[in-house]
Amino acid sequence: MDELEKKEELEKGQEVVETEPVPEEIEEAEPAAEEAAVEEKQPEAAEEATEETAEEPMAAAPAEEKKAEKGGSNIIGIIIGLAALIAILAYCWMNPSSGSSVQDTGVLYAKDNNLYFYDLKNEPYLLQEGISEGGNYHYFYTAWGAGCTEEGHWAYFSDDIDETGGFDLYRKDTKNTAAEAELIDSNVYDYMSSKDGEVVAYLRQNGEEMELCTFDGAEIQMVKDGIHLEDNVYSLSADGKYLAFIDGYNMLCAAVVGEGNALPLTDTAETYELAEKTGILYFVAAGTDGYNIFSYAFDGEEPAVVAENVSSMELLPNGRDVLYCKTADEPVLYKDIIVDDMAESDAEIKEGDEGYEQKQQRDAIREAMENGEGFEPLLQECYILTGGESVLVEENVVAAVGVDSDKPYVVGYRAKEFNPLHLSVIGGGLDMVEYIYYMSLNYGGMEVFLTNTAGDTDLLTGSQPQLDTLKLSADGKKAAYMITDPNTGGNILMQMELGKDAEAEAVQMDVESFAFVGGELFYYFDYANGAGTLAMAGSKTTIAGACGVQYADDAVYYIADTDSKTGNGQLRCWDGKEETLIADSAFAFQYKGNGKLAYISGYDVTEGLGDLGYYDGKEARILDEDITAIFIY
């Protein structure tokens, strides 16, 4: 059995996690009809629903709006059936399962092919006229290509979008309504700004090739030409000081913004990450005996090796620490996995006796055991690089991923403790020992662990826990995650208390999304035809017919009681105790943070027009009429 076959067999073992009984009240529930996953796919689903109605090809979306999928043209004059309409409502631009923080920034929206801005305080004003010249900047009621910076007071936007996706890139000081919008460059196809908006990096077409450029408020600098227009080809640090990119020759390069030529680092980079909190560039590239993790601090020095012979690397969601796995350094020793239970009986077997050839195989195994021989391990060790030090957090790991938390948490699969083989049942030589060992790991079941650098470890229970769904409460005392129902293939939501060696409890079947809100677990289930039911763990209250669900720090926002003819419904929020009506007629909304949100009211799907509403946490009011879309950012 070669190493590739061994790895394939072991990876299959991730699906053989031992199943556990599901409580009777959940087992008896009716399975929901299959629905497309909502998380991170909203605009894409809307596009599929009306893809045949697009009148012109869609232009490429700028990098500032990478969260949005590209879509087609407006659907003016198209009549949509009720089922399709409600389904589209459910795929609003906000992430229904998101619990992450949202920046309290202004509202950018489109009206009459013009761009308008509302700063959440004063009256909206015209930012730019004629933002598209044949290219598309929006699809249905959502738009992309413009956004407000996370920190600071800049609005970046694309203007004169052409049919190939090229545009003029502008920025505007939103605190100065009298200031003119500033043209940065033309023929731009992609861009990203620093958090404060003072620096922007972008891809500009020049003839047949793309150039990577930066603008620091004073001048444009062309950093490198021959860049490919593709995902993750460049990255700007959060503070706007540093730039990492892959050039046209697959060379990973680093540059200090405004300081001249880029420094080539390696042409063997498999992946790279620019840490938001520290500004350090981490990348995986070929080393002497395998792949190593290197770090580079943009100081002109040689990149430093921080880990050798790694198999994976991931920047944790906290934007600071790095998770990586590597094959264990020590071999698997035969003496550690074999028990000799035939020493006495084999001593009686002589040459020529029946079973002598089998005894010779066992003698070869005994010799290997006595000599301390072994074979290459397949399981991995899992580390977190934090504060410049690598901390071993788990051994015997098959796969691991980071958890969305400010603290360095990781969740993953590990092999259960191996039970030594008895020599009497091996039935072969050293090759058979290896084969049985790998098969035992594969079919012996896996444990799913949650751990951190402090050594706090809990085991997730249930059938096939879905690692990428795990969420922690803000105080770190609870965890929730999805498991796969072994009978229907649907999702079952589980919740557990950490640090108490307690098994997780099944909360609900057929869950579409969930999040911790104010320390309590809220979830959205029984999703069908664009609507579902909203509930909170431990509460008897449920809210049916909800769509466009978005979770915030202290409440969950949604649209309910949708009108079957217009698609507009009541915009509400619920904190688990009290349900608040925000607006009577809302088609879609965008949460702006701090209990504030913008929404489209009285939307007419045949005309593609609606009114812009805003809720400041206390009262709702209409800001403008007959708008076409709100920008996603």
Q: What do these coordinates show?
A:
The chain is mainly beta and 633 residues long. 11% of the residues lie in helices and 42% in strands. The chain has a 7-stranded antiparallel beta sheet with strand order 6-7-8-9-10-11-12, with no helix packed on it. Strands 21-22-26-27-28-30-31 form a 7-stranded antiparallel beta sheet. Strand 13 (234-236) and strand 14 form a beta hairpin. Helix 3 runs antiparallel to helix 4 (82-90).
Question: Can you give keywords for this protein?
Answer:
633 residues; mainly beta; seven-stranded antiparallel beta sheet; 8 helices; 42% strand
Strands of the widest sheet, in order across it, are: 6-7-8-9-10-11-12
Instruction: Enumerate the spans where pLDDT stays under 50 for 5 or more consecutive residues.
Output: 1-101
Termini Cα gap: 50 Å
Give the helix level as a range of percent: 10-25%
Give the mean pLDDT.
Answer: 84
Shape estimate: globular
| Proportion of strand residues | 35-45%
Radius of gyration: 29 Å
Q: Count of DSSP E strands? A: 47
Q: Enumerate how many helices there are, as a single number.
A: 8
- SSE-based structural type: mainly beta
Major β-sheet annotation:
7 strands, antiparallel
